[in-house]
Amino acid sequence: MSEQLDPEMFSACGNVVLPMRTHNKWAFRIMVCLEPGRRRFSELRIPLREITPKVLAESLRAMERDGLVTRTAYPGVPPRVEYELTDLGRSLLGPMRVWCRWAEEHLPDLVAARESYDTAV
Amino acid sequence: MSEQLDPEMFSACGNVVLPMRTHNKWAFRIMVCLEPGRRRFSELRIPLREITPKVLAESLRAMERDGLVTRTAYPGVPPRVEYELTDLGRSLLGPMRVWCRWAEEHLPDLVAARESYDTAV
DNA sequence: CAGGATCCGCTTTGATACTG
DNA sequence: CAGTATCAAAGCGGATCCTG
């Protein structure tokens, strides 16, 4: 076995390991939607079916705040707003793909573990 | 620009892309703590300072349910319980490291974006 | 069309105290 | 030691209605 864990292990990194804790439910998918190019608000709503406009707007604003997407509003009627990944946002696509590949590969195991755990109780 | 987004894009994958949505605040750190080897409940509490026993117990049980850790209770007094990563859990360390490397590299950008966004409002 | 405002409820997180 | 019980607070997601 190994020695004691360092008590200061995490003292330097606030939420460093997981900066996108909140607004995650949709952020991943939104980024996937934006990967091929810029999209309008209502275009995003189509694949994200169950999302309400409020939540989509909130998620996009949080992502804009984090510098992951840009929001461009074109004046005029009807209004038009487009969202696009920033360089920072695009740099996240790599790690995301790694994560997704893990999920594709191992999700059945996880689901199976969950089921056997639940039936055992 | 690109064509319309496929409305069925996500219809097949429930929460596939992010299976560990909840219980994430601590799960990442717990996995880091368990990487070198098995640990007892109270050993884990040391680096995870602010965590309450209740939340640690909950997080560990959720991770056990997902097949990421095993829980081994040794009978006797005083009680002793040890937690250890499963193969499935260990398989997640790679993707996690990728994610952490991104965070180390780009978190300053993200924080800066956040600050400039906040002062702009 | 792209959201903002309001209200509501579930879930997650936490502080504190207690127990086999 | 390794948790559980209880209570309280916050976060998160959604329904509905409204507006420039």
Automatic annotation (TrEMBL), chains A, B:
Pfam families the record matches: HxlR
Stored InterPro entries: HTH_HxlR (IPR002577), WH-like_DNA-bd_sf (IPR036388), WH_DNA-bd_sf (IPR036390)
Per UniProt, residues of the HTH hxlR-type domain are: 13-111
Alphabetically sorted, this entry's keywords are: DNA-binding, Transcription, Transcription regulation
Q: Does the keyword Membrane apply?
A: no
UniProt key word Electron transport: no
Identification of the protein by name: DNA-binding HxlR family transcriptional regulator
Q: List, in alphabetical order, the Gene Ontology terms for molecular function in this entry.
A: DNA binding
